[in-house]
Amino acid sequence: MESSQQRGARRILVVEDEPTIAESIAARLRAEGFTVDIAHDGPAGVAGAEAGEPDLVVLDVMLPGFDGLEVCRRIQARRPVPVLMLTARTDETDVLVGLGVGADDYLTKPFSLRVLTARIHALLRRVERHAAPGATIIVGDLRIDTDQRRVWRADTETQLTPLEFELLVNLARRPRTVLARDRLLSEVWGWADASGTRAVDSHIKALRRKLGADLIRTVHGVGYALEAR
What's the whole-model pTM score? Predict the structure, then answer.
């Protein structure tokens, strides 16, 4: 299938069960030059991601059929893709669960379309920045192939989401150097906001769960350092 990059327009899938909200988001994104597909429930969202191979998914948490968390799990299992979750929930646990299943960023409803488009542009810039040819990074028993976007620890390969991969690369390029949360948020996510540091913490937890609890050291009140041996 021809990619949206080859067609010249980035493709975004909007999965939102409220037609008014979905159409408002789609209209704004089309005005920004994106190709936009819309799905209104969980199964249609998964099918739309498989058929359209979007460059980014805007995904509501509360959906009929099955919820956005399950949609995110299924999408990421098939093909890692940046996901921006929309949630009406303000409970921090709900937000962290969303980030834990592979979402890259989130917005709490109500939100402005200007902020939404700014976050989307930031996520896509991050993907472009990390898509450039790189090299193999080796830190202790950790090996990262930045060209193929593959990760091994002690010869065991582990699949990471796009954001988990980029966060790991960011840490691995400066091993044993403590990087502040707000710096990681700016360099990896492409924006800086103190409220977003919980996203950093959530993805660090995911990396530890997948690659080993001893991989990343927490410096309380400051940030994280990669300590692979």
Answer: 0.65
